[in-house]
Amino acid sequence: MRSTIGSGRRRRLPLILLAALLTLSGCAGAGALGAGGQTLVIAIVANPQMNDAMALSDRFERDHPGVRLKFVSLPENQARAKITASTATQGGEFDVVMISNYETQQWAANGWLENLEPYIDASRGYDQDDFIPSIRESLSHQGSMYAVPFYGESSFLAYRKDLFAKAGLTMPKNPTWRQIADFAAKLDDDQAGIAGICLRGKPGWGESLAPFTTVVNTFGGRWFDRNWNAQLTSPEFRRAAEFYVDLVREHGETGASSAGFSECGTRYAQGQAAMWYDATVMAGTNEDPASSTVVGKSGYVAAPVDKTPASGWLYTWSLAMPKVTENKQAAWEFMRWMTDKNFVRMVGEEFGWNRVPPGCRQSTYAIPEYLDAAKAYAQPTLEGIRHASQENTMTEPVPYPGIQFVGIPEFQDLGTRVSQQLSAAIAGQKTVDEALRQSQEYAETVGQAYRETR
Length: 454
Fold this sequence. Notes:
CATH architecture of the largest domain: 3-Layer(aba) Sandwich
Radius of gyration: 22 Å
CATH superfamily of the largest domain: Periplasmic binding protein-like II
Largest sheet: 6 strands, mixed
CATH topology of the largest domain: D-Maltodextrin-Binding Protein, domain 2
Organism: Prauserella oleivorans
Pfam families: SBP_bac_1
CATH class of the largest domain: Alpha Beta
Number of domains: 2
Protein name: ABC transporter substrate-binding protein
Keywords: Signal
Signal peptide: 1-30
Number of helices: 20
Distance between the termini: 18 Å
Shape: globular
Number of strands: 11
């Protein structure tokens, strides 16, 4: 079912990239000579797992005395814009960049990234086959890896076992969305300040559009049919949108139209939601005593479904090397260090096993200390990632790669526009039909461009 965009098609830069090119600020060029030798400039997304890597980076410098690391750590939206602009224009600002499986195959096809297979093959003990197959394939182009994963995720549902027991409810291992809606209605408790469920409503193609699109998929909808006809006003897409908006408006968190992953995570960890559907990496935060008041109180089950056997998404933050990087071997040595089996153990021993980057290496799920710390969520995470394919999560063929995103450059702009419409519907500023009609117009413009180049 999965497909890629035709190689003969002239690739166009999305609007968000054009904007980034205009606003890109300069930074020190990659490969500058530091006082101790070579300096590698590494662009990464600011989140807890990456912060742990930066905290441990002195270990790498100790073992590579001729190399100094310089990190450029930015919030996700800023990081995407800066990394995209630099890589697309071959600016050379960065030796290593953090990108996802959304960018990797597109950028590899464009010739923007270094093929990592020769480096992997020459690295004894790196064990490429240890990567979970769905993750490895999502970072590959024409059989070669162009990025190596730092952590991977699918999506699943967290629920408060104590609240379910108190209400006399039992969570199935593989729930349906209708069951989840019923549970949310019964567990909604305004007096106690507990929402029935937390769902993202914050605008952004990587925010509310991620969980929402998995609901669209399992309800039988799709963004485009095989001929690139937009499908956002189809009965299936409309039913999914009405369900999502109604659920979050009736039983979701306060201020849902501006709640993203971080906001939902805070609410759930502070005991303000009975359920939370989101990325599997949430579990580490939920079970961390330093950030959560509900440690040990949660159960984790597969992403809810409607018409499909599975509905979880597939995503990975990974490290790639821009084609123009001058210090390729040093850059690879850092990439190898940060994605190796030994790094996983280093994080666990230094910061605690709940802080381990999950969802990439199969060997992680054989470490006794990790399995003990992550016993509530390790297996659901692994199963979610393994089953994350279009064949399992969609009902009809589509012309684009991706599960929770449409794997084309234009989706950064299209998805953000549609997410703004969804947010407006959640906020009660417009009806679902009004939001979908406007969204359909946006999608038709994109689809027409692809039909014209078929």
